[in-house]
Amino acid sequence: MNPMDTLIWLLNFPAAHAYAVVFIAGFSTLGLFALSVRGGAPRERLRAIREREGLLHTEDRPRGQGWGRVVRVGSRVLAFLMLGSLVVGILSLTGVPVTRAYIYDNGRPTTATIDGDWVTFTTAEGVEYTLESNFFSPAVYPDRDAYFPSGAPVVVRYLPSHPQAFVIDSDQTPR
Asked: Which residue, of 70, 93, 116, is where some domain finishes?
């Protein structure tokens, strides 16, 4: 399995679902960054108030600080992943071929049919896939604005190790 194909496959999800990813990542990033700050978790604030008021006894020494640290680090990692997804989604919505050019250059061609926003094709191994190519971030390359009527045969290029990452080849259509 090619590591670059796997990376493109992972990046292709936020690129292919850009409209939803922009909203999800936009709102969740702020909450994740807030969780990653010390005192962002509710129990830590309560403990700080108890310490300040002198209500925390020596036998009630703070426990769970390790778990709080894990939550903070995990929240930071997720926040940066969401921030990266937000960037990929915005680039895809504005027409930048974040993953489409690589899939076009390295993909295996096959014939497919379009039914509305859904593309159905069969891989060389005989597995049939029906995947979405929505209006906001269509999986079309190199001409992103090419129109394909529903039911029309088209050529699709997909990554052999990850067929879910595909593009509709706008330069080549079956005749």
From this structure: 93
Rounded CA-CA distance 112/120 in Å is 5
Distance spanning both ends of the chain, measured CA to CA? 34
- % of the chain residues with pLDDT over 90: 60
99-117 mean pLDDT: 94
Determine, yes or no, domain membership for 175.
Answer: no
- Half-sphere exposure in the Cβ direction for 155 (13 Å, CA): 15
The number of distinct structural domains making up the chain is: 2
pTM: 0.80
Structure tokens at 128: 């049939």
Cα–chain-centroid distance for residue 68? Answer: 27
Whether residues 87 and 109 fall in one domain: no
Residue 36's domain spans which residues?
A: 3-93
